[in-house]
Write a structure and sequence with these properties.
Layout lengths: L1 E6 L7 H17 L4 E3 L24 H13 L2 E9 L5 E9 L2 E7 L19 E4 L2 E7 L7 H8 L4 E6 L10 H26 L2 E6 L1 E3 L4 E3 L2 E4 L5 E4 L6 E6 L10 E10 L4 E8 L4 E5 L2 E3 L6 H13 L5 E15 L2 E14 L9 H4 L4 E7 L1 H7 L8 H9 L13
Parallel strand pairs: 1-2, 2-3, 7-8, 8-9, 15-20
Antiparallel strand pairs: 1-14, 3-4, 4-5, 6-7, 9-12, 10-11, 12-13, 15-18, 16-17, 16-21, 19-20
Helix pairs in contact: 1-2, 7-8
Length: about 400
């Protein structure tokens, strides 16, 4: 599992600015081939006081939350992020949300509050253990470093890693580097010390993401770090400043058995590529990718490609080869996770129009459109493709730079 840990400045009540920073970091996480991006406590709303500013708290279905969830679909990177949550009955929670593939998959509400939080917030009751593929991860929030409950719950549920998301406000304002160093040293001793203690006790990896920098009325010490089950700090940012830390965790995300599949990059004489659109009405998402699908029993990849093109396009007149890359991706379909390993082959053809009569049979598989695209048309339309870097590969192929058969085509 590759994870981006964000030490982020989250300005209080600046929903648009905070959302933009989240999306920017998700895009950077995509470029680094990350599975998840983990953000601090209150990362989307800022560390607001809901009794003074209830308008800054968000319901879990609020528009900024939906937009951030949608960004996980566009980038192919899941996100763990924090809000001051407004409950339906008017109460408030400190909540970390988990979104992936355009869907909100979970919410963990802080179960142990700091002394200065009890007047404004309620405590949650449910465990914070979630899945990305085969991997289970737990969540603990800031003051919960002081107690054992969320860490024990994660270990008992089989989680291999806990994401420790925090926004510890510093006493007084920072006015010079010495003041920032002192505040950072305090959080190293307190927060990172808690992470080390719980990692050793429960044999967990602990990944820390902390708010960083100055807000309107409060400063935060900034820290992103990874702690091993032996209590060793294996990776960390150097100081209190905002930044991101990309870490590789020895946690398996691949779901067994892996589904083998093949896809055909069909390119006509004009350089257009034929794509099919998959739609997920439940999540409200869609994406375009080359035709193809899973191998049936006894099939090799080329046989599967030929069969899929006959089923989806009703045609056999293609020139196949060479093989131009591979993809392995783990994703959620319906209520289950699966991992698919694909081989891609280049298919040359003369121009033809897809038969719309094929669509009724394909809708059962989630396909609702077929059409030709140029790379420039894809970029102009801003549609989501699989892989996300498809236009770059199309440009290279048009220039005669064919990927090698074992090239990783990306998420």
């Amino acid at each position: 599992m590759r994870v981006l840990l964000a030490a982020l400045t989250a300005l209080k009540g600046d929903l648009a600015g905070n959302l933009g920073r989240h999306v920017e970091l998700l895009e950077r996480a995509q470029s680094r081939r990350c599975d998840l991006a983990v953000f601090p406590e209150f990362s989307l709303t800022g560390s607001v006081d809901p009794l003074r500013h209830p308008e800054h708290a968000l319901a879990v279905d609020a528009e900024p939350v939906r937009q951030l969830a949608a960004a996980t679909h566009r980038t192919g990177v899941g996100a763990v992020f924090g809000i001051a949550e407004r409950a339906g009955d008017g109460g408030f929670f400190i909540t970390q949300l988990y979104a992936c593939g355009g869907r909100l998959l979970g919410a963990y509400r802080k179960r142990h509050l700091g002394e200065d939080e009890a007047a404004a917030y309620r405590t949650g009751t449910a465990d914070g253990v979630f899945r990305f593929g085969a991997a289970r991860f737990g969540i603990a929030i800031c003051a919960e470093g002081e107690v054992d409950l969320p860490w024990r719950s994660a270990a008992t549920a089989g989680a291999a890693v806990v994401f420790f998301c925090a926004a510890p406000g510093l006493t007084g304002r920072r006015t010079d580097p010495d003041g920032w160093r002192a505040g950072h040293a305090w959080w190293e001793q307190q927060g990172l010390g808690d992470a080390i203690r719980h990692a050793r006790r429960h044999r967990l990896w602990v990944a820390v993401a902390t708010q960083a920098g100055s807000t309107q009325d409060e400063d935060f010490p900034g820290l992103a770090a990874l702690v091993s089950p032996d209590g060793e700090v294996t990776h960390r940012l150097p100081d209190w400043r905002p930044g991101e830390l990309v870490v590789d965790l020895p946690v398996e995300v691949v779901v067994q058995p892996v589904r083998q599949a093949a896809r055909a990059l069909v390119v006509d004489d004009a350089g257009r590529t034929l794509l099919v659109r998959f739609a997920d009405p439940e999540a409200g998402t869609n994406w375009w990718c080359p035709p193809g699908g899973g191998l049936a029993d006894g099939e090799d990849h080329l046989t599967a490609v030929r069969r899929e093109l006959r089923e989806e396009l009703g045609r056999d007149r293609f020139s196949f080869g060479p093989w131009i890359g591979r993809r392995t991706h783990t994703f959620r379909i319906g209520q289950r996770w699966m991992t698919q390993q694909e081989r891609w082959v280049l298919c040359r053809t003369g121009p033809f129009e897809p038969d719309p009569g094929r669509l009724p049979a394909l809708r059962a598989e989630g396909v609702d459109q077929l059409r030709w695209w140029t790379a420039d048309q894809i970029r102009a339309a801003g549609v989501v493709t699989v892989p996300r870097s498809l236009t770059g590969w199309l440009d290279r192929i048009a220039a005669g730079q064919l990927p090698a058969p074992d090239t990783d085509l990306g998420c």
